[in-house]
Automatic annotation (TrEMBL):
Keyword Transmembrane helix: yes
Chief location: membrane
UniProt keyword Membrane, yes or no: yes
Organism encoding this protein: Candidatus Schekmanbacteria bacterium RBG_16_38_11
Gene Ontology molecular function: aspartic-type endopeptidase activity
Pathway the protein contributes to: Protein modification; lipoprotein biosynthesis (signal peptide cleavage)
Name of the molecule in the record: Lipoprotein signal peptidase
Length: 161
């Protein structure tokens, strides 16, 4: 029971952090406004991402993009729930990882359902070399994926592979 509460709290905190941060950015900044945090490294830059990661599919028509991303998101969320139920029972780290990935997927799906786009604002770069802007949902997905990879590596070490 305690484990279930922790997993639910991780989901709620991660999703809430994502949605509140996006709301604050949307209401306090104008589109494409950029605030320098660290001159040649980190800015807060408010953009609307019409595409997927790295802007993939952003040039497709909205009538294709929005339903496509909503369907893909629902399939991904369904798959994550299946993996959580089927394979993560015995591994707390896998439960946490899948919960983070799930909360990120839901966070970006909320944007797609309500706005048709995803709000991004974390802008990391090294001088003129820019990584595409992202948000806390994307961060949750990446951290969760990293934890899954780490746990797979740990399991391989235990098996002597």
């Amino acid at each position: 029971m305690k484990n279930r509460i922790i997993i639910i709290l991780i989901f709620i905190v991660s999703l809430t952090l994502d949605q509140i941060s996006k709301y604050i950015i949307q209401t306090k900044m104008i589109l494409h406004q950029s605030i320098t945090i660290s001159e040649n490294f980190f800015h807060i830059t408010y953009i609307l991402n019409k595409g997927a990661a790295f802007g993939l599919f952003s040039n497709n028509s909205e009538s294709f993009r929005t339903p496509f991303f909503i369907i893909v998101s629902i399939i991904a969320i369904s798959g994550l729930l299946y993996f959580f139920i089927a394979f993560a029972k015995e591994s707390r780290l896998n439960q946490i990882a899948l919960t983070l990935i799930l909360s990120g997927a839901v966070g970006n799906l909320v944007d797609r359902l309500t706005l048709g786009v995803v709000r991004d604002f974390i802008d990391v770069h090294w001088y003129d070399l820019h990584w595409p802007a992202f948000n806390f949902a994307d961060t949750s997905i990446c951290i969760g994926t990293g934890l899954l990879i780490l746990n797979l590596y740990r399991q391989d070490l235990k098996k002597g592979l």
